[in-house]
Amino acid sequence: MTVAPRSASSPPASSPARVCATSMTTTPSSAPPWSVIRVRILSFLDSRAPRGQHRQTMTAGRRGMIPADLTRVQLVTDPQLAPDGRRVAFVVTTLSEERDEYLANIWVVDLAGGAPRRFTAGPRRDLEPRWSPDGTRLAFLSERAPKDKLQLYVMPADGGEPAKLTALDNGVTSVVWSPDGRRLAFLSPVGGEREPESEEEKRKSRPPRVITSVKYRFNGEGFIYDRRPHVFVVGIDGSAPVQLTDGDFADADPVWAPDGESIVFASARHAERDDDDASDFWRVSAKGGTPQRLTATTGPVLLPSFSPDGRTIAYLTRPGLNVYGRNIQVFTVPSDGGDAASISSALDRSCGALHVRPLWSADSGSVLVAVEDRGDCGLWQFPTQSGEAPARVVGGGRAVNGFSASADGRLLSFAASSPVAPAEVFVCRADGHEERQLTQLNKAWTDEVALSSPERFRFTRAGLEIDCWVMRPAGFVPGRRYPTLLCIHGGPHAQYGHVFFDEFQVYAGAGYAVIFANPRGGQGYGEAFAEAVVGDWGGGDYADVMAAVDEALRRHPFIDPDRLGVLGGSYGGFLTSWIVGHTDRFKAACSERAVNCQYTMFGTSDIGHSFNMVEMGGPLPWEDLARYIERSPLTYAKNIVTPLLIIHSEDDLRCPIEQAEQLFVALKKLRREVRFVRFPGENHEMSRSGKPRHRLERFRHILEWFDAHLEKTPS
Predict the structure, then answer these.
(1) Please, what are the domains in the chain?
(2) What is the pLDDT of residues 209-255, one digit of tens each?
(3) Whole-number Å distance between alpha carbons of 141 and 150
(4) What is the average pLDDT across 65-73?
(5) So what's the pLDDT on residue 253?
(6) Residue 467: C-alpha distances to residues 377, 433, 496, 522 (Å)
(7) Which residues, other chains included, contact 356 with Cβ-Cβ below 8 Å and sequence gap of 6+?
(8) Handedness of CA 468, 473, 476, 478 (dihedral sign)
(9) Torsion of the alpha carbons at 105, 109, 114 and 118, rounded to the nearest 10
(10) Is 355 among the catalytic positions?
(11) Distance (Å, rounded) from C-alpha 610 to C-alpha 102?
(12) In whole angstroms, what is the distance from residue 110 CA to residue 87 CA?
């Protein structure tokens, strides 16, 4: 149940996690506009490694992955191929435990060969590299001062001193060059109360907040009701930025028309925007003025992309209002407005895996997007008019996290990972042929660490085919049985598969076998499969994951049925809390950032008023309170006897911390074994993008909990 962040604001400094209580028997341990509800898909890929590969890896004498390795992995993202196709700019991010922050710089690698080299030298984060149309300049966002928000810089493509183009209080995101290379469009939030800086200001009382909209907060950003992102334009000549849009609307995804005279952006400006997730595309003159609506308010729209001839806009949308389980499809609409049509409906899969604009072919005959398919996340090409079937261009054995093309459309660059290798940069022809890997930034680390390859199997339950994977622990010895962790993904409209996923590798490195599956409700298996969980949380999905455990036990005798643990976050936290309220099969559990009480989350979550209502099957709490109570894990707290670790972030607006507090208090009153770990200053994304020290401490709490209850001594 995660929604993509709407900005790249820097998180606050971390504080120690608060262990509020331990059991009585255990010793204590030392992004988008609001209207566009973008359910963030966890993009995992099915790596069909040879069955012997895992055993060879695990017997090579290398150690398993440990939490501290998070600080050694170089995270490669956002590959941007230069217009002439000769080099790729990309972002390399690392976690600094010492500074307790993320450090990122832009790197460049030549297609002709040679080692990749760091291109920017910002002291904190340099992000969003974007080549000018002629390839002579590179724009990027950077935090150069300690309290600086991301600002826009431009520097020569061959290196040199960057020029700062903005100094806006709320920072900059979503940068795009004009066709003539003389201007850039971007988004910047406008308004909002300034945070007090001096001690005297902090002592003064602050004005009350007057709220009139349901969508007044957003996870990771806080209050947004008085601070809306709008479209700006700035010249590379050093002139001041010009604001083009205004009003009580959140604007997103600006893109220039090919003639450079106007900009198209996404925004919800209809009267019912507080009650639905619809948005529209709007066109505004590059000189400002009243925007013109181009679409018919039929659902959320995002990432508009002009065809080379300027006559058509391709974009992503989920047709319908508040239908979160449906496929995200590729549509086209005339660039001056009119009837929109899907070009991806023939493929019953979702095209919303990555936040990357559809890429047009040079002849305007096809569009390239990322597609989720049975645990896979590859690049697919959709013809725009010919009626030909879509074709997969990039896929197989890795997870694509970003892609781009040369100006003539003949070359593609993408970043991708596999289960045993963090992401690197690749290049290929537009049809996927002649692929080459351009970087090996993580090779030294992967040569040192033994990473476990998932082994995939499928089974059928209640007429649905369920994918499941098992990972063997580091140092695996045939004939032994191992404690095993069942991991449950969030969403529920997400998917697992084969990708480099630090959590699974850390658990395997700690000596655990790992089971993970895609129960009903996930993406990648068609709309009917994804929507099968709507109105049935804790029903068929619960039966699916329990059947996955049974099937894994049947196939893999090294899994110890007497030493099973279960854990998950967000919706996965819901299902974890639900499981331990309905079975005592597991010896320990960890419920993280969970949904535990549906009826209170309806009014306390930033999306509960819509998302939870829809996922409950449609009724409002006062229309069918019994249903909300029935599908709340809190209702079954009296049945929980499994030792439970509860982890939650104190600034979580998606699944507010009251969800954890209620279950914790209930279990303490019942005198059950429970521990509550609270992370100050973190939001719903803590496990993925929280402060580095908090992420490391989170691993410590999880591993210590399961170590204490699952007894890792080989049997």
Answers:
(1) 18-30+446-584+671-710 (3.40.50.1820)
(2) 999 999 999 999 999 999 999 999 999 999 999 999 999 999 999 99
(3) 6
(4) 98
(5) 98
(6) 15, 29, 9, 11
(7) 303, 369, 370, 402, 403, 404
(8) negative
(9) -10
(10) no
(11) 33
(12) 4
Helix (H) and strand (E) counts for the chain? 13, 41
Cα-flanking dihedrals φ and ψ of residue 263, to 5°?
A: -130, 135
pLDDT number for residue 18: 52
Task: From the candidates 174, 570, 605, 687, give the one annotated as an active-site residue.
Answer: 570
Query: Please, are residues 473 and 485 in contact by the beta-carbon 8 Å criterion?
Result: no
pLDDT of residue 678 exceeding 50:
yes
Backbone φ and ψ of 444, nearest 5° = -60, -40
Bridge partners (DSSP) of residue 312 are: 334
**Tens digit of each residue's pLDDT (9 = 90 or more) over 438-493:** 999 999 999 999 999 999 999 999 999 999 999 999 999 999 999 999 999 999 99
Return the DSSP state at 39. Answer: B
Is 262 a catalytic site residue? no
d(CA 407, CA 134): 9
Residue that has been written with the tokens 């995660």 in this structure: 2
Strands (E), 391-441: 391-394, 399-405, 411-418, 421-429, 436-437
The active-site residue out of 489, 609, 684, 694 is 684
For residue 386, pLDDT beyond 90? no
**Lowest-confidence region among 380-394, 439-453, 546-560, 691-705:** 380-394
Cis status of the peptide bond prior to 133, with omega within 30 of 0: no
Going by pLDDT thresholds of 50, 70 and 90, the confidence category of residue 385 is confident
Strand residues in 112-200 grouped as ranges (E):
117-118, 125-131, 137-143, 151-156, 163-164, 173-177, 183-191
Question: Are 697 and 16 within 8 A, CB to CB?
Answer: yes
Per-residue model confidence (pLDDT) at position 1: 63
Q: Which two tokens stand for residue 417?
A: 């990972």
> What average pLDDT score do residues 149-174 get?
96
Residue 121's contacts (CB-CB under 8 Å, 6 or more residues apart) are 105
Cα 143 to Cα 114, 120, 147, 164, distances in angstroms: 29, 12, 8, 11
Name the token pair of 126. Answer: 């340099």
Residue 67 has pLDDT above 60, yes or no: yes
Quote the CA–CA distance of 190 and 242 in Å, as a whole number: 12
* The pTM of the whole model exceeds 0.85: yes
Number of residues assigned to the chain = 715
The reported pLDDT for the residue numbered 254 is 98
Integer Cα distance of 453 and 472 in angstroms = 8
- Does the pLDDT at position 11 exceed 80? no
Q: Note the helical H segments in 78-189.
A: none
- pLDDT of 112-132, one tens digit each? 999 999 999 999 999 999 999
Alpha helices in 483-638 (DSSP H): 502-509, 527-531, 540-555, 571-580, 598-604, 613-615, 625-630
SS3 label, residue 515: strand
Nearest to 128 by CA among 187, 76, 189, 79: 79
| 488 phi, psi to nearest 5 deg | -120, 125
CA–CA separation, 480 vs 511, rounded Å? Answer: 12
